[in-house]
Amino acid sequence: MRPLHPPAPDAPRRVPFPAGLYLILDPAVAGFRLHPPAPDAPRRVPFPALVELVKPALATGVRLFQLRMKTPHAGEFYDLAAQVCALVRAGGGTFIVNDRVDVAQAVGADGVHLGQEDLPLADARKIMGPDKLIGISTHNLKQAVEAEGGGADYIGFGPIFPTSTKEHPDPVVGLAGLREVRAKVRLPIVAIGGITTKDVREVVAAGAHCVAVISAVLAAPDPGKAMAELVKEIEDTV
Ligand code: TZP
Ligand code: MG
Fold first, then answer.
1. Total domains in the fold of the chain
2. What is the DSSP annotation of the chain?
3. Residue 125 to residue 118: CA distance in whole angstroms
4. Does residue 103 fall inside a structural domain?
5. Per-residue pLDDT tens for 23-34?
6. pLDDT single digits (tens) 125-137
7. 54: CA distance to ligand 1 center in Å?
8. Which domain holds residue 222?
9. Ligand 1: which of 192, 215, 227 to mutate, judged by most atoms within 8 Å of the beta carbon?
10. Residue 130 sits in a domain of what CATH number?
């Protein structure tokens, strides 16, 4: 697929960053529905159903995957990240770990995605090296400009719409906020927050390079169908 909003030719970039659907796998969303944890569940839960989504997603055309796991246990995160990473890489996709530079490095991920409260970008870059992707979550123009100036490869921007997936979401930025950032920042923008298939057209029109979703796929009655519809809608839009 051609990039939705290709970065300027002189924009800082290290490795190619695919356009399209950016699928965020979060066991707290998928696991809860697919595998309600038993009270005596072992600490290292394999979340097989979440892993099983990867192959159908690749077959559907998803190229960009992030694992988001809000756990204090690095070993638990590592176990799942290693499984997902192997599948995504074998299928020619790009795999990004949320929050944890150490887990990203340990599993050989393509990159890491950091929030405003995570490791500073400059320090993460020292650890990750120049050839890995670093994405930064941003919620306003100032943060987006800072992320670009600091050498991020892409920015997440949102929440575009209200979301109940994130525990303490930042204020909704809306499509107007996305347009404002698109006008001032050359990096690829991953739009996130409450996005569903019906929103794809206007989110892309407002400047998104990628459309990131969690619940639109993981909380759908049929996740496979949901991702196929999203991919098709994005392809039809460009
Ligand atoms: N960052 C901003 S909104 C959000 C994150 C991680 C949650 C997105 O989840 P959903 O279910 O696609 O709204
Ligand atoms: Mg984070």
1. 1
2. ---SSPPPTTS--SS----EEEEEE-HHHHHHHHSPPPTT--SS---HHHHHTHHHHHHHT--EEEE----S-HHHHHHHHHHHHHHHHHTT-EEEEES-HHHHHHHT-SEEEE-TTSS-HHHHHHHH-TTSEEEEEESSHHHHHHHHHTT-SEEEE--SS--SSSSSPPPP-HHHHHHHHHHH--S-EEEESS--GGGHHHHHHTT-SEEEESHHHHTSSSHHHHHHHHHHHHHHH-
3. 13
4. yes
5. 999 988 876 555
6. 999 999 999 999 9
7. 19
8. 20-236
9. 192
10. 3.20.20.70
Residue 45 lies in a domain: yes
Domain assignment of residue 8, yes or no: no
Chain centroid to Cα 22, Å, comes to 5
Distance CA 183, CA 203 (A): 14
The tokens for 106 are 């340990």
- Using CA atoms, how far apart are residues 92 and 135, in angstroms rounded to an integer? 20
Q: Is 193 a pocket residue for ligand 1 (Cβ < 6 Å)?
A: yes
**Reported pTM:** 0.90
